[in-house]
Specification:
6 strands; 149 residues; 6 helices; globular; single chain
């Protein structure tokens, strides 16, 4: 599977990798987000339903996003944020219910974004799919170094 990610990235780019990752999980969205100051902006976002991306998930205030958790912990997983104590006072608690994300580093090694699966209802992510997400992030951060830098 890591070889599939490498091949897709080389031949078809980041969007193809997101579509591949998304097809393997129950989450509606798989995305690459860039963190800049007080905003988190979608660079690429795959919607399983193929709809236009709503503005409220294309650009998100940093503190309302889940990125602070990823920065703090180096990754973040929650199948259901509505019952997750870590979300007790988080503004996105009732909006993004399921989130599984890993950091994307810029060339200097700082967290510059995230690669994530998310959904508006509770859905689990198997451990092997989370590991694959992490592997994909390592490949994508190299390919997107100019954008993340």
């Amino acid at each position: 599977m890591p070889q599939t990610i490498e091949a897709l990235l080389a031949d078809q780019g980041a969007r193809a990798v997101l579509a591949y990752l998304n097809a393997r999980v129950p989450h509606r969205y798989t995305g690459i987000y860039r963190i800049r100051a007080d905003l988190v902006t979608s660079l690429y976002l795959h919607d399983k339903q193929g709809e236009l991306i709503p503005e409220n998930i294309a650009v998100v205030p940093f503190e309302a996003s889940i990125c602070p958790f990823v920065l703090r912990d180096g990754w973040f997983r929650t199948d259901d944020s509505s019952v997750d104590e870590r979300f007790a006072t988080h503004p996105g608690r009732d909006y993004t219910i399921s989130y599984h994300g890993v950091p994307l580093l810029n060339p200097s090694g700082a967290v510059a974004g995230t690669l994530c699966h998310f959904n508006f209802t509770a859905v689990p992510l198997p451990d092997d799919e989370f590991e694959l997400l992490h592997h994909a992030a390592l490949s994508l951060q190299v390919k997107l170094a100019d954008v993340l830098g």
